[in-house]
Every structure is written in C-alpha cells, then in structure tokens.
Amino acid sequence: MNYRAFHKLSYGLYIIATESAGKKYGYVGNTAFQITSHPSKVAISSHKDNFSTQKIIDSKKFSISVLKKEVETSLIGKFGFMSGEDMDKFQGVETITAQTGAPIVLDSCVAWFDCKLVDTVDVGTHILIIGEVVESDIISNEEVLTYDYYHRKYKMFAPKNAPTYIEQEKLEAEPGPEVEVLEEKSSSSSSPGAVHICTICGFQYDPEEGDPSMGIPPGTPFEDLPDDYKCPICNAGKEYFKES
Ligand code: FE
User: Fold this and answer.
1) Alpha helix segments (H runs only) across the chain
2) 226: CATH
3) Distance from CA of residue 216 to its chain's centroid?
4) What's the mean pLDDT in 40-57?
C-alpha cells in the first residue's frame, strides 16, 4: 500500500465544537462532509481519545465552522494540538450560538453549520458522528482553507488523532515525490544557527526570523532561546525540537 496516495484525497479544515454543562469544547478536524441533502445531514469522524468526542455524544449537538484560507495559525495550534482538559481553547475567540447552543467560531471562518446529533457509528479508533443541520450561514466570501494548502504552506503534521494521520516511518518507506512547499524559506546561510523543527506539529523555528509572536527578535539562534520557550503553535517545549 502506498500511504502517500491518501494525501491525494481532498479535504477542508474545520473547527468542530460543542457545549456541555456550560463549558465549550472543540477541535480542528478535516473530516466533515455532507452525506444527504434532504434532510441536510453531515458527518464528522472524531477520535475516541479526543476530549470533545464524548462531549458531543453526551450533548447531542455540534457545530462545524469552516476555516478560511489565510487562517490565524494560533487558532490551529489551540484547537488542533492542545487538549481542552488543560486550557480554555475558547478564551479570546469570538463565538455565537444558533439553535442547538453549540458554540460557533467566527474568527478565521467563512461559514458555519449548527447540527443536532442523530446517529453514531463506531469505526474502531474513531466514532463517525452523524448530524442533521438545523441552521447554517455564511460569514464571508473569502477563500476556504484546504487540507492540501495547509500542509504545503505551513508544513505542519496532522495531529495523531486525525483520521488522516500517517506515521512518518510509513511515509518515509514509500516511494514518491516530497510534498511541494508553497513558500520556501530564504537561505539561512547568513544567519547563525540552523532551522529547528517542532516534532509535534511541524512548526519551523527560523533564527533569521525569530519568533515575534513569542517576543523573540530576528537573528536569535535556537540555542539562545530561553529554556521556557514554547512552540507558538502546539505549546511543546524546546526539547521537542530537532535540527531540520
Ligand atoms: Fe509545535
């Protein structure tokens, strides 16, 4: 089996969210798709280990917010790589509710669907959750984010719980072209230190650029980063980075 073939399947990227006992839960998923039009039904595939999965099943409701192409990457970091057990992912994120009460994310999104859960199918590691759309709307007409564009632009990995996650070893064992990147970083030959990559999410620390989001000025070698430096996307510590 050539696992790279799976990268040729097209997807978007969405924030899936719910509310249970007054608390909001959510994650970034690429598997959200329409399955019937009369009535309008959609399905999501949600990992059993995801904190949000059981909350969606218990509350019997969820929202799907469609991310825009030029997404705020911190949103992906929070909803894609961190657990709602450790933090409130919704802090500072603009949301509304419609009929079901599931929070609908407006930031970096172009459209949303409010759904009531009508069925679930246990498919092994994941649960296929089927919902009937009770309300939907468009926020803007900006371009939508595709999974392919996200991977090529940000070069990030799929989180381990994503239905499309493939172990690096399996990919490396396969013949095939490397993923073409959209924006090659400029050569860092004139700056000190090497580019370091976060092994959790794929974020690249380029000393030439520093990390303004974390207050690190351009020209700071990886070695000189403070010991408590954290990946701006997934919050992993320095020990999770390796030289690229
Ligand atoms: Fe990271």
Assistant:
1) 51-59, 73-81, 147-154, 168-172
2) 2.20.28.10
3) 24
4) 94
